[in-house]
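Single-chain item
Fold in token form
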Amino acid sequence: MSDSNLLSTARVEAVLRSTLKALEQGKSQMYDIAEHARQEYYRLQAELEQVKQAVSQAIRQVESLDKQFKQARTRLYEISRDFEHYSEGDQAQAYKEAERVRESLAVAQERERNLRLQRKNLEISLNRMDEIASKAERFVSQVGVALAYLEGNLRDVNDEIENVQLRYEIRQGILKGQENERRRLAREIHDGPVQDLANIMIKLDICERLYGIGRQQEAVSEYRSVKTLIQSVIGDVRRIIYDLSPLTLEDLGLVHTAMRYVKESCDQYGVDSEVLVVGQEVRLDDAIEVALFRTIQEAVSNSLRHGRPTQVTVRIEFGSEWVRVGVFDNGIGFDMEDVQNRLHEGRHYGLIGMQDRIKLLNGSFSLNSTPGQGTRLVASIPLHPKESGGDKLGSNKSTNRR
């Protein structure tokens, strides 16, 4: 390599390092902005809840005073009509009482108007703060993807792929899959644990208020609901962690992890499930087990969310030269031409991710479906990579299964 090429490489590396540093700083700053915005959102949410309660109280007070004022006016009318039956003291007292109620009503009505205006302003501020926080969180996610791409070493992947166009498509598919997964995870955390934690903050504030005014029994009831909500948050977080990286995959292998995931997922939807194992089960290379499990996970998830099946079957087949998984359902199916168009346009990140994982391991992937006749997905990965001269990837951790 010439000196000029070395110099050019050094300059490119310097530019990349400078870009990475700037992106890291920007990501950290945007993360702080997102965090502060989200905290302000929760504060506004709690304040809005208090104002809503105050508005309800103000409305009830206005209604009560309005009723009293009408009664006072009726009393004045009766005294004016039959004034000879009432003393001057009675008349003065009636006028005084009516004036007092009228003034109280005017004050209460003004307070109600101010509270309503405050509620409206808080709702506007809450929506704006949520928008700011969401934009900041999306920016952090996008910068994270860019950093992961710049820091990642794709040289080995590039060496394996001779076709430039195929290499480009696979890289794009990986990035889209990563971005889609990050968005799904961010949305799941935001809509699940984060919302529940916000509700917990509001409920704890209510508990403090109830204790402060001596309503201990109601406070105890609120604390119990907080405990239930915390248990729900713990369950959601554990499920998200399991979806990110099932610990059983590394410890117990593909078959056990797939059986557990399929059963739990299908049980949630009330769908019958079956996992069939053909051949002698062996522990596979980590990359193969992860790719096949993610394929099963994505396929089963798509089937349950979109296919409306009553039966989902997963078949795991171990051969001497390959391992194959199939996911079959009896759901409503779909139009293959429409799916192919979406794949070409890069709009079906789940399928793109499955295909790319299998392709990177020199495997094959097929998907077939007909409207009203269910869906069939099959992925196969060879156990003898061409470059290894026949060394079997799955031979290092063999386990037998009855």
